[in-house]
Amino acid sequence: MIPRSLTATLQRLAGSFPVVTITGPRQSGKTTLSRAVFPDKPYVSLEDPAERSFAEEDPKGFLSRFDNGAVFDEAQRWPDLFSYLQGMVDEDRKPGKFIVTGSQQFGLLAGVTQSLAGRVGITRLLPFSLGELSATYLQRLSIDRFMTTGCYPALHTEKVKPEDWFASYVATYVERDVRQILHVQDLSSFQRFLRLCAGRNGQLLNLSTLAGETGVSHTTARKWISVLESSYIVHLLPPYHKNFGKRLIKSPKLYFIDVGLACWLLGIRSAGLLSVHPLRGALFESLIVSEFLKSRYNAGKPADLYFWRDNKGVECDLLFEKETRLQPIEIKSGKTVTSDYILAGKKASRFSVENALQPWLIYGGDESYERSGVQAVGWRNIPDWVTRHDN
After folding, report:
1. Domains in the chain: how many in total?
2. CA-closest candidate to residue 152, choices 294, 38, 39
3. 41 and 136, same structural domain?
4. Structure pTM?
């Protein structure tokens, strides 16, 4: 098993809360991680029809087997679990007693917030981050090869072609999760919506346009984008919320959490095709935004990531607060730092000159160095750089 960065956060929360939850997309490694970190606890999958039937027919008998705790996988499949756990942990608040995992955020977190408020530590496990993959392994992959592969664990630990894996993943996701959540009858419309979203990766979210091109109502499009977000397929990056006296863009930007999935949905099946694709820059942005998101979640922090754009064209691709100051980040997919890149990096901090830290320029090359007041960071160096500077 490749060590996961979330491990330390899980252990910390298990020392404080009687229940710890692990949410995240399907196939992100939740089951493997929970069993590795808590090997002494009984493991129960509520996807198992026999276990779920036992739980539904005789909940007290089912739970009596786990007086000392357990790992409950895919817990949203039995929503009543959370109410029963409330009573059990109120009687015995031993830290780390129950570990609860689930892929579908609506079902899992709805039960948690209703029944286990104040009793549960919540974590999110996304696919592999760059820091979880060895430097030696990453050196063998070009940036385009890495982007078309994506970060789901199976694509780096098993002998499977990305195009085959993603085809199965999307079919499973659409047929199971979407049917369960939305009761969508016309799955082809949802699949079209999903591909249209991939085509707008890195752009401002425009639900009216998406709805019109999909052939559904604005209300339906809003529900669908909410489901994509809740199941960790996309992330909506909000604009920075403080007003510096300028007219701001108010819509979020749409990013796919896994760049490999976005590539597959766009029909990009090879590194060669990606290298000349017009959306390559936006897809690289998606990779970088996702890396920062994973870093925050693995540390047990909220996302708190933003972008900035005003109506005069002043823009910052990625932004976060560091104590009382702002860290601006410009993202460029090219492999060489040019003078235009440096200029863009400087512009990224001009919306708030007095409050901005030295701008970072994350690019598709290998070296990291300072140039003309801008810190250039090669894509493979992101894990070390974030660890040193995003505290």
Report:
1. 2
2. 294
3. no
4. 0.93
